[in-house]
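Hi R.,

Here are the chain sequences for the assembly we discussed:
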Amino acid sequence: MSDPLLTVAGLEVVYHTDAGTLPALSDVCFEVREGQIVGVVGESGCGKSTLGAALLRLLSPNGEIVGGRVMFAGRDLASLSSGELRKVRGRGIATVFQDPLTSLNPTFTVGQQMIDAERAHGQGRESKDVLRRRAIDALTRVGIPDAARRIRNHPHEFSGGMRQRIMIAIALLHEPSLLIADEATSALDVTLEAQILKLLKEINASHGTAILLISHNLGVIAEVCERVVVMYAGRAVEEGDVYAIFDRPLHPYTRALLAAVPSPQHRGTTLAAIPGRVPSLLALPPGCKYADRCAHAVAVCFAREPASLARGGLRVRCFLYDDSLPAADKPRADWAKAPGRA
Amino acid sequence: MTADPQSGPLLSVRDLRTFFSDRQGVIARLLRRKSGEVRAVDGVSFDVVRGETLGLVGESGSGKSTLARTVMGLVPATGGSASLDGRELVGLRRREWRPLRRRIQMIFQDPASSLSPRFRVSFLLREPYVINKVPPDQQASVDELLDMVGLSAEQANKYPHELSGGQARRVSIARALALHPEVLFADEPTAGLDVSAAASILNLMRDLRDRLGLTYVLITHDLNVVGYFADRIAVMYVGQLVEIGLGDRILAHPRHPYTQALLACAPVPDPHLNEGHLDNVLGGEIPSPHDPPSGCRFHPRCKYADPRCTDEVPRLEDLGEGEMVACHHWRRLDLTPQPPVEATAAAAAVAQTTL
Ligand SMILES: Nc1ncnc2c1ncn2[C@@H]1O[C@H](COP(=O)(O)OP(=O)(O)OP(=O)(O)O)[C@@H](O)[C@H]1O
Ligand SMILES: Nc1ncnc2c1ncn2[C@@H]1O[C@H](COP(=O)(O)OP(=O)(O)OP(=O)(O)O)[C@@H](O)[C@H]1O
Ligand code: SF4
Ligand code: SF4
Ligand SMILES: [Mg+2]
Ligand SMILES: [Mg+2]
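And here is the predicted structure of the full complex:
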């Protein structure tokens, strides 16, 4: 197995707000190996985008990393100067976000923006022709037909799917070893989504680019990821191989998420929506953050936070699997009363 | 299912057309050589019976929202007809719409922009009564409406930006329900919601269908959602219906190559079932309704296209029992998706051995 490209250990992030300091990420640990596609999934507000932004130190101004480490290609990102960090962004780690229109400048042609992006990452000494050729190659690679001509168009002259391809082309300009894609296909229809996922998989296969794919769509995760991190209230509550996560999920939250997905097979039945909602970061409960929605919760779940344990090839944060607890205090794995697949 | 085929259709759409003029501004008008029209909806016909849910699917830009807005009278029809319980809706004046407006309502695609940011939820929920001059004794209270869509009473004092995506969607549903409609157009009601919020919206819609006997036209490009919710499915491409039929039949045995291609693109939440799934992704993009392809509009992307498809427009063939398809060659194509059973067994075996 290859070495970890990215190691996130005990990452803690807060947002400073008028209402107080919000703990947005707490003790998040996971790895991305070279060439791996890792999915991050969870309900809205669980901290997926915060995680993606924190890795590159691109948090909004009121966000702060207050603990833990992010190691990328053997270097601690916190120790880098802003110049070195700029090199990592782009060449080492690149990002693609949900809405390409807000990331592309409407007043410049796609070609100008791509050449600027190349210059920003230290390729300023090359001639404009070389930069232009590289931009055209990058666009061709992501499937923009007639790229040599299209490079003179403005962003609004492209469809939504094409704009997302352009964003991916820009992200790939410097052949990053890790691409962070935050809901990169969520605004697209099924065909464009499938086309972009296919493109990401091809890039992964041909260039060995590792991908951190953030999505709340479990279908998308199952489609392309090798490993999955399930986030809840700023914690990684379960992590492991995609087959294990979908076939034998351990955490009650993972099971509930999977059970809520509509499908033709559920026709005529009530969907297993998860009762209640993600707790507010301003008033997080003291114990397991999922306790008030969990059908298995017992006293200990409300009293303290479960640690992350290795079980069956997965890492899981739940007292159901904590053998150090006396049997009488342990929650019971009575799946019949909980949402989830049997 | 409360669909009753004996009674006539509640909603009946015939050859409906909505063309937009392509001239946006003076400059664009002067510069544009090829002026003309955008045929966003181009000859659509279907029926919906009381209590039924018709799912309307198609790629972005296929004309789904425009079709709904035209039936609702929010966009003028260029031609054709749409009738509710035998009453013609096309060409009605605003005043004539008033008594009908209560019977047919819409949940808009983007709840954020359809809820005015200046008003609190309590006002937004009363607004339909004000606009439609509903007498007070026929009005539901704000609390009743909030309760119906599973929101707590405190939400009444919030402004739209203080709501989550799922909550805003519920307010939008409550507004549509305030008038006790018989027909509800739901335009992408779960788009942008996470899986749990989407599941609660679908449960809510299902519950309302059972309790109030609502008839839905559910617009979405999520095939898992239509597969779960719709009784029948209509597939739209560049302003036209290409196939319509029972949901189970369409999902198991699509007849139109476009339907097959859409189904092949739907992401499956099971890593065993999508081995090689992305190999069959439909390539290219939906053409502009400004300048649709000749013959069959799907021919540039269709892997079964032959010269006849480029020249001759396929007619929407009526196969009876509400089943229709528009393809020259559907009879000799077998588009039934390969059963994933072997794939599952093989993948499971692999997963077992690597553990
Ligand atoms: N700049 C900010 N200031 C204060 N709170 C913030 C800020 N950005 C995010 N948050 C809060 O941090 C939490 C995590 O947000 P984040 O955007 O990371 O979630 P997410 O999992 O990406 O959700 P979604 O699926 O909706 O994109 C949320 O409660 C959010 O309200
Ligand atoms: N007011 C308008 N003027 C000109 N063209 C329009 C107008 N409204 C829609 N169109 C065009 O009509 C076509 C159909 O648009 P419509 O919004 O109905 O599609 P849709 O199927 O609802 O797509 P989506 O899935 O993205 O919501 C598109 O090509 C669109 O650009
Ligand atoms: S720790 Fe307790 S409350 Fe939390 S998920 Fe496990 S059983 Fe449920
Ligand atoms: S008519 Fe021809 S091009 Fe159109 S869907 Fe059928 S086979 Fe394909
Ligand atoms: Mg996010
Ligand atoms: Mg639409």
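Chain A touches chain B through 51 residues (CB under 8 Å). The two ends of chain A are 33 Å apart (CA to CA).

Let me know if anything looks off.

Best,
T.
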